[in-house]
Amino acid sequence: MTKKKLASAFALTLALTLAVVAANPARAFNDLPFNDRFAAALPSETVPLPSAPRPSVVRDSVPIYQSDSAKVMVDALLGGQRIRLTLDTGSDVTVITMDVARSILRAGHGQLIGDGRFTMADGHVTTQPMMLVDFMVVGEHILKNVRVTISDMMLLGFHEVNGIGPFTINTRTHKLTWEAER
Q: 45, 69, 90, 174: which has the highest count of C-beta atoms within 10 A?
């Protein structure tokens, strides 16, 4: 490095040092690590602002029950009827038996809305009666106007579970947990 370039670099370093000392008299420039000396000399506009606080995550869970066949089941209140449903993440609709449907209709918490066509897991298409139930309660969550189909199974469909929020199923802790940001 030539004497001229060395003098120029020294002058620049001295100017930066004086600027930092003038801006931060309580902070000794030589106490800063080498890389921080130049960062401290930069105008404040180049310093990134702190990030916004992260939203808090609220977790809410309900117990799950496993049958001998490893099915995951959840308790719910559907149209005033306490029921246990098999959680079926492959089903886009909740399915109830005719007996449960009759009880809901007698209590005045549902109405038949015609037939629906559904593709089953094995690929065949079936037509089944449908009803609209006034409410479903799962844990602390209340779903209104729940569309269900009537068959010989009791299934809690993905649409209802996911409608509450993002969820996880933990078979070790026996919990179905929803997470929501506040």
A: 174
